[in-house]
Amino acid sequence: MSSKRVIHSHAGSPRRAAGFTYIGLLIAVAILGLGLAEVGTIWRTQAQREREQELLAIGHDFKRAIASYYAAGGHQLPLTIDDLLEDKRFPEPKHHLRKLYADPMTGAADWTLVSGTMQGISGIASSSKAEPIKKRGFDEDEQQTFKDATCYCDWQFTFVPRFRLRRPAATPPPSD
Fold it and tell me: What are the strands of the beta sheet with 112-115, ordered from one edge?
């Protein structure tokens, strides 16, 4: 009788295979997490770019409303934002701005008011200290002031009145 020795190998055992599956699953979860983090970054950047475009549009609306208020009568600037919403200088109030917009960068109507050389509000700016993504490619009027801004608060939407120089009345030539 010969005795045979049986050698048991655990190399192909289900227990060892489960360990490899677990490691593979951990790697897959890590790769998925990195991918989702990248998607989140892209989404956040895209959302910020959309808010920047909204800020530019709202800023131009405020600038046009201030110009409309100025041109409507008296060549004066509004004293408050409420004056843009309801201009009570006339028997029938005028509305230069449809509504008080929220600052897209902060989510609140916490605008910084800009005063010019004249009494009143000549413009608005965001109160956000966040750094803009957009650095170039602005309208010609804004290119110099918005280019390379370090925060959205540097994006000031201002109306600058254009003063017309009046020509002096023609004086008749001296009579002899």
Answer: 112-115, 121-125, 156-158
